[in-house]
Amino acid sequence: MTSDPRTSELLGRLGGRTILIIGDVMLDHFVIGRVDRISPEAPVPVVRFDHDEVRLGGAANVANNVAALGGRVEMVGLLGDDPEAAQVRDALGRLPVGTSGLVTDPARRTTRKLRVVTTRNQQVARIDYESDDEVSGELEADVVGRIVGLAQTADAILVSDYLKGVVSRAVATAAVAAGRRGRRPVLVDPKVPHIDYYQGATVITPNHLEAEAVTHLRIRTSAEAYAAARRFRERAGCDSVLITRGEHGMALLGPDGDADLPAEAREVSDVTGAGDTVIATMTLALAAGATLVEAARLANKAAGIVVGKFGPAVVTVEELSQS
After folding, report:
1. Torsion sign over Cα 220, 224, 226, 227
2. Are residues 123 and 117 in contact, defined by beta-carbon separation less than 8 angstroms?
3. pLDDT tens-digit profile of 10-39?
């Protein structure tokens, strides 16, 4: 099925838009093997190694998603002084992603999530290598300075908060202020402990569990989702809220009306990184001139495609145009 004329027009305008992404850059490392027995040493599966894969994760996966849709990225974040940092820079360097905003902190370990996965895509274990102390002092001032400089050439600003230390109150405030100065949309993929950091953002995109945690409201129906979205908007001090609800779709609360978007997934393989795809697509669409509802619908289509893929994955314009 092909897209309608308006969607085709928007997809054609995604290319060349520049998104400033601020957030927690990481690597997703998959060790993949076969399981055919339980260890005699402990009640755990024995994984016979087959191969491994390394992919961009966290905010870097958001950047990968923007690039796959034809956008350009300027990246702001923190890396350690280690081999994983070199891998991140190398991978981003192969994309239309500017890395002048990446700050090196020798005292910090570059975040790496190592997942042990079977050849049937079943996750056996995950090991996190990380330093998640919140940035402060001279490093924080350096990050803020790079946001201010790079925002001047951006069409939209995206904050990808994974609670790994990059998004401090000052960093989030600088991102929102830069958006307001240039009348650029600022979108935030949030974390609950930082809900007070994002005041003034254009759109915040919590999943339903995050929305429940912030609002103390149960979300089981569309009506409950909108009640939570209204309270979330008041609590966070943002303009609009998009609650992602997995197999129940999305609930958009905007200044000009609401939109209930049913899920479009045909087959779910892995939800890892689906939120990255949603916010990347939505931000790029808004930068290309889409309305909030149009951007949310496009993001919903992208989510339905990406959950059919394994691990942090991307969606292309061609896939969206055929959905």
Report:
1. negative
2. yes
3. 899 999 899 999 999 999 999 999 999 999
Distance of CA 190 to the CA centre of its chain: 9
Instruction: Find the DSSP H helices in 152-253.
Output: 169-182, 208-215, 222-236
As a whole number of angstroms, the distance between CA 47 and CA 42 comes to: 13
Residue 269's identity, in one-letter code, is S
Closest CA to 229 of 258, 198, 197: 258
pLDDT of residue 180: 95
Tokens (6 digits) for 256: 């000009």
Length of the chain: 323
Q: Which helix (H) or strand (E) holds 78?
A: strand 72-79
DSSP 197: G
Mean pLDDT of 48-56: 95
Return d(Cα 293, Cα 271) in angstroms, integer.
Answer: 23
Amino acid identity for residue 238 in this structure: C
Distance CA 140, CA 148 (A): 12
Average pLDDT over the chain, rounded to an integer = 92
What does the DSSP assignment read for 239-286?
A: SEEEEE-GGG-EEEEETTEEEEE----SS-S--TTHHHHHHHHHHHHH
Tokens 């950091």 belong to residue: 197
Q: Which helix (H) or strand (E) holds 86?
A: helix 83-93
CA distances for 197 relative to 179, 182, 200, angstroms: 15, 20, 9
Task: Write out the catalytic residue numbers.
Answer: 276
Distances (CA, A) of 36 to 32, 46, 306, 310: 13, 7, 29, 21
**Residues 166-189 pLDDT 10s:** 999 999 999 999 999 999 999 999
Burial class (CB in 10 A: 0-12, 13-18, 19+), 318: exposed
> Is this prediction's pTM over 0.90?
yes
Domains and CATH numbers, the chain: 5-34+44-322 (3.40.1190.20)
Decide: helix, strand or coil at residue 316: coil
